[in-house]
Write a sequence for this structure.
C-alpha cells in the first residue's frame, strides 16, 4: 500500500531538517507491506511500513480499530517500521528536532493501512515457510568508527530471509531481516532509502506479484558503511547501496533454504520497566528552559510534564511465532545491536529481534555505552523528550527480562 504523503509536509529523522520546511520532492515512494497470517480461525498481522517509527501515542487506538474491524487480537498486531529517516514524523511525543507530526497525513496513512489489511486477507492462500541465512557487509558500528583509534565494535552481518511458498512453488512473499539504519541521504526528499530500493528490486526480479518486506533489526548503533567508515551521499548513492543489498538478498534465496516445521499461530507479550537514572528538578529546568536549541525545548516539555514524569519506561516485548524454528520479537525502542546478538545467542537463532515495533520511546543503550557517553545513551534523551538517561542497571534488567521471556 502506497503511504507517500500526497502534499509536501516536513520530514523527520535529522535535527537539521527542522529548519528546512516541507519536503521538496519524492525520490522513492513509501509503502506499507502487509502480511496477514491465518491458521483456522486465528489471525495475526505484521505491517512493515516505510516510516521512522509508529508513534506510541497512536498505536493503541490503531490496534483497537484493526481489532474491531477484523477480529485480530491486539496482541497479535505488529506495527513495524523500516526506520527511514526520509519520511514524516508519526508521533507528537518528542521535541520538534525529530520532526513535527502532520495529523492529517498520519490519519490518512492509518486509514490506508487498515484498508490494506482487507486486501491482504482477500489474497490469502496456503503457503509453506522456508528460511535462509545469508550475509551482507553493509552494517558498521557508528560508535566504533568515531573512536580513536577506530574500533570495529559489535555488528550483526547476518541477513535472514523468510520465504512464503505457494502450492505451485512460486513465491508469495519474503521477509528480509537485517540490522542497519537507513540514513544514507539527508536530502529534503521523501525516500524509503536503500531498503525501499532493495525491496522494489527483489520484488521485480522474483516477480509474480511477490511482496518483499523488510524487518529492521536492532540497528540502534549500526549505520551503512563500507567497512571503514559510514556511507553518506545523495540519491545516487542510495540507489547503489540498495542495489548491492538486493544482490545479497537474491544470493540468499537462490541457495537451498530450510523448510520450517508448521505450528499453530501463537503470540504473547510482556512488559518490563526500565529504570531511569534520576528525574529532573523544577529549579534546574527553569534555568535550562531559557537555553537555545534542544535543551531549552526539552526543559520546557519536562516542566509541562513534571507532575507525571515516571521513574521508569516500559519496554514492550511482543513475540509472534510463525514456525517451530522461527519467531519474531518486536520491541518498542531503538535497540542497540548488542541486544539483538544476545537474543540470537540465547535462542540459537530461532528468534529474530525487530525494533521500531508497536511504538517508540528512544534508545536502549548498554552499560558500557552509558559509561562511554555519546548520542545513544545521553544526547538522544533530549531529542526523544525522555525524563532522564537510563540507570546503569538497564542492560542487566533488559537481558534478565529477555532470558525469562524467551526461555
Amino acid at each position: 500500500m502506497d503511504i507517500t504523503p500526497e502534499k509536501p509536509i516536513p520530514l523527520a529523522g535529522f535535527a537539521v531538517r527542522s529548519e528546512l520546511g516541507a519536503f521538496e520532492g519524492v525520490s522513492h515512494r513509501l509503502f506499507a507491506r502487509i502480511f496477514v497470517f491465518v491458521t483456522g480461525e486465528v489471525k495475526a498481522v505484521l505491517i512493515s511500513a516505510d516510516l521512522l517509527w509508529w508513534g506510541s501515542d497512536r498505536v493503541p487506538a490503531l490496534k483497537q480499530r484493526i481489532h474491531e474491524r477484523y477480529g485480530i487480537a491486539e496482541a497479535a498486531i505488529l506495527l513495524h517500521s523500516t526506520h527511514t529517516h526520509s519520511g514524516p514524523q508519526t508521533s507528537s511525543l518528542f521535541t520538534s528536532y525529530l520532526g513535527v507530526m502532520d495529523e492529517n497525513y498520519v490519519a490518512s496513512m492509518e486509514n490506508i493501512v487498515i484498508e490494506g489489511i482487507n486486501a491482504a486477507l482477500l489474497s490469502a492462500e496456503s503457503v509453506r515457510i522456508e528460511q535462509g541465512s545469508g550475509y551482507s557487509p553493509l552494517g558498521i558500528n557508528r560508535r566504533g568508527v568515531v573512536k580513536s583509534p577506530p574500533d570495529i565494535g559489535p555488528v550483526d552481518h547476518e541477513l535472514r530471509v523468510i520465504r512464503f511458498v505457494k502450492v505451485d512453488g512460486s513465491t508469495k512473499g519474503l521477509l528480509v531481516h537485517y540490522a542497519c539504519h537507513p540514513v544514507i541521504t539527508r536530502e529534503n526528499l521523501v525516500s524509503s532509502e536503500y531498503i525501499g530500493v532493495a525491496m522494489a528490486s527483489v520484488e521485480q526480479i522474483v516477480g509474480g506479484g511477490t511482496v518483499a518486506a523488510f524487518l529492521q533489526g536492532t540497528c540502534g548503533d549500526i549505520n551503512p558503511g563500507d567497512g571503514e567508515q559510514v556511507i553518506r551521499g545523495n540519491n545516487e548513492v542510495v540507489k547503489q547501496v540498495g542495489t548491492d543489498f538486493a544482490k545479497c538478498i537474491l544470493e540468499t534465496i537462490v541457495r537451498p533454504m530450510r523448510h520450517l516445521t508448521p505450528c499453530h499461530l501463537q503470540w504473547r507479550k510482556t512488559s518490563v520497566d526500565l529504570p531511569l537514572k534520576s528525574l529532573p528538578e523544577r529549579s534546574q529546568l527553569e534555568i535550562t528552559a531559557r537555553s537555545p536549541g534542544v535543551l531549552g525545548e526539552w526543559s520546557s516539555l519536562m516542566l509541562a510534564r513534571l507532575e507525571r514524569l515516571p521513574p521508569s519506561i516500559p519496554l514492550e516485548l511482543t513475540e509472534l511465532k510463525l514456525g517451530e524454528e522461527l519467531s519474531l520479537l518486536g520491541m518498542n525502542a531503538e535497540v542497540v545491536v548488542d541486544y539483538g546478538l544476545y537474543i540470537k545467542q540465547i535462542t540459537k537463532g530461532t528468534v529474530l529481534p525487530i525494533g521500531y515495533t508497536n511504538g517508540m520511546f528512544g534508545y536502549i543503550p548498554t552499560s558500557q555505552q552509558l559509561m562511554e557517553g555519546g548520542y545513544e545513551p545521553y544526547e538522544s534523551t533530549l531529542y526523544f523528550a525522555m525524563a532522564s538517561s537510563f540507570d546503569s542497571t538497564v542492560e542487566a534488567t533488559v537481558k534478565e527480562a529477555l532470558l525469562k521471556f524467551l526461555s
The longest strand covers residues 312-323. Residues 103-122 form the longest helix (20 residues). The chain has two domains: 15-261, 265-406.
